[in-house]
TrEMBL record:
<dbReference type="Pfam" id="PF02452">
    <property type="entry name" value="PemK_toxin"/>
</dbReference>
<protein>
    <recommendedName>
        <fullName>PemK-like protein</fullName>
    </recommendedName>
</protein>
<dbReference type="GO" id="GO:0003677">
    <property type="term" value="F:DNA binding"/>
</dbReference>
<dbReference type="InterPro" id="IPR003477">
    <property type="entry name" value="PemK-like"/>
</dbReference>
<dbReference type="InterPro" id="IPR011067">
    <property type="entry name" value="Plasmid_toxin/cell-grow_inhib"/>
</dbReference>
Amino acid sequence: MAKYFDPLPAPGDIVWCLFPESVGQPGPKPRPALVLAVAREFKAISIAYGTSQKTDRIYPTEFLIGSSDPNFALTGLSVSTKFDMARQVQIPFNSDWVAKAPGAALNSPLPKLGVLPANLVKAAKEAAAKRK
């Protein structure tokens, strides 16, 4: 049985999850996701897809958190990662969908990696505005 995590994350948090490839099923590969909204009554979160692949190619609905960013340490990410604001889903905030990232400190709050740095909020909003 899935364990629900408490407390719920906040918008702007970065979590480690099994982003779904098909509706209602956890994906096969864990990855970072940006929390966009929280549905407290359902213990669910709306997230945007994150990947460390092809970070040299950023599309209009994507933004990059580069490892050279002065606030990169706040993210909890280990490498440059782009988030696609066009790929959003809502998932339960439980152990079937989210987990502690590999290499995360033992005392880090589960399953939050870090937060979106304030200097990148505008880029995230601009990418979201281009979502169709």
